[in-house]
Design brief:
The protein is 25% helix and 27% strand. With 304 residues, the protein is α/β, with parallel strands linked by helices. The strands form five sheets. Strands 1, 2, 3, 4, 5, 6 and 18 form a seven-stranded mixed sheet that branches. Strand 2 (27-30), helix 2 (54-65) and strand 3 (71-74) form a beta-alpha-beta unit. Helix 1 (11-22) packs parallel to helix 8. It is elongated and about 65 Å long.
C-alpha cells in the first residue's frame, strides 16, 4: 500500500509528488497524458519558465522526480476511487484504466478541469493556440494588436477592463443572439466595438484569426478571447466520493487541500477554498496548491 496516490500529473500533481518524495513517503503518480493546457505551446507568467513549452516543463519535472526512489510514475489514468474493502478509514483502492488496481492511505486529486467551449465552428481547433481565456497568460502577446472577444457582455466587460490597456482595438461578438442596444452602448463606453451580428465561425489565418459573422461579414484579428463557456471536472471522482462542491463547480477544500472526505485531498484547477469565487488558473498557483496538499497529507500521516 502506498502512503499516497496522486492522480494527475500537471503542475499540481508533479509538485505534490516532489514534496511527498522529499519526505520519503511512498508515492504513486498517475499520468493519463491528458492536460487542460494540452494544446498550449508556451506557458506565460511563470517566473523562470516564462515562454517555456508545457511539455518541456513536464519533462524536466519527471526527470527531477526520478531522483526520488519513493516516487513511482505510471503513465495510466484512474477510473475510480473507492474505500478499500474492510479497510480502515483512509484506505482507498484506485482502479486504473489498464485494469489494475492500487491502494493507498491518502489520495490527492489533481486531474484538473476541462473547458466546455461555446459551439462556435472552428473555436475548438484554435483553443490554446489563437483562442484564449486568461489575460494574465496570453494578453501581453497581443500588445497593441486588434483582438476579438466572443461572448456575453457581463464577462466581456471584465476582459475589456483587463485587456484594454494592453491590446489594440477590441471588437466584441455575441454568440447566438445580437446584443441589445443598451449592451452595445455599454461596450462602446468601455472603448470596445460591439458587433451587430453574432459570430458564425472562426478560423486561423496567417498570424491571426478570421472572424466571420452570421451575415457574412469578416474581420481579421490577432487572436480571440472567450467570454463564454464553462468548466467541468475532468474526472468522475467527485461523484464516486460524494465530495462537497462549490457553486463554481469545483471541489471545496480547506487551507491544506483537504476535501469533505477524510484522507482525500485535492489541488489545482479542480478545487478551491470557499473564500474564492472560482479556481485560480495558474501554473504557479497549481504548483503551490499541490505542495500544500502534499504537506497536508504528510501531516496526516505522522502517526503512520
Amino acid at each position: 500500500m502506498y502512503d499516497a496516490i496522486v492522480i494527475g500529473a500537471g503542475p499540481a500533481g508533479l509538485q505534490a509528488a516532489l514534496t511527498l518524495g522529499r519526505m520519503h513517503r511512498s508515492t504513486l503518480l498517475l499520468d493519463s497524458g491528458e492536460y487542460r493546457n494540452g494544446t498550449v505551446q508556451h506557458m506565460h507568467n511563470v517566473i523562470t519558465n516564462d515562454g517555456a513549452a508545457p511539455a518541456d516543463f513536464r519533462a524536466v519535472a519527471r526527470t527531477e522526480l526520478a531522483a526520488y526512489t519513493d516516487v513511482e510514475i505510471r503513465d495510466v489514468g484512474a477510473q475510480s476511487v473507492t474505500r478499500a474493502d474492510g479497510g480502515a478509514d483512509g484506505d482507498f483502492t484506485v482502479l486504473l484504466t489498464d485494469g489494475d488496481s492500487v491502494e493507498a492511505r491518502r489520495v490527492i486529486l489533481a486531474t484538473g478541469v476541462a473547458d466546455d467551449l461555446p459551439a462556435v465552428p472552428g473555436l475548438q481547433q484554435l483553443w490554446g493556440l489563437k483562442a484564449f481565456a486568461c489575460p494574465f497568460c496570453d494578453g501581453h502577446e497581443h500588445a497593441g494588436r486588434p483582438i476579438g472577444i466572443l461572448g456575453p457582455v457581463a464577462r466581456a466587460e471584465h476582459l475589456i477592463g483587463l485587456l484594454g490597456r494592453i491590446v489594440g482595438d477590441i471588437t466584441v461578438y455575441p454568440i447566438d443572439e445580437r446584443f441589445t442596444a443598451e449592451e452595445a452602448q455599454l461596450l462602446e463606453r468601455l472603448g470596445a466595438t460591439a458587433s451587430t451580428e453574432p459570430v458564425a465561425s472562426v478560423a486561423a489565418e496567417d498570424d491571426g484569426v478570421r472572424i466571420s459573422t452570421a451575415s457574412g461579414g469578416e474581420q481579421s484579428v490577432a487572436g480571440v478571447f472567450v467570454a463564454s463557456g464553462t468548466l467541468r471536472q475532468r474526472a468522475p471522482f467527485v461523484d464516486d466520493l460524494a465530495l462537497r462542491m462549490l457553486p463554481s463547480g469545483s471541489i471545496e477544500i480547506d487551507d491544506f487541500g483537504r476535501t469533505s472526505l477524510p484522507a482525500i485531498f485535492a489541488a489545482g484547477d479542480l478545487a478551491h477554498r470557499a473564500s474564492l469565487p472560482g479556481p485560480m488558473a495558474s501554473v504557479l498557483l497549481a504548483s503551490a496548491a499541490g505542495q500544500i496538499a502534499a504537506i497536508g497529507v504528510i501531516q496526516s500521516l505522522i502517526a503512520h
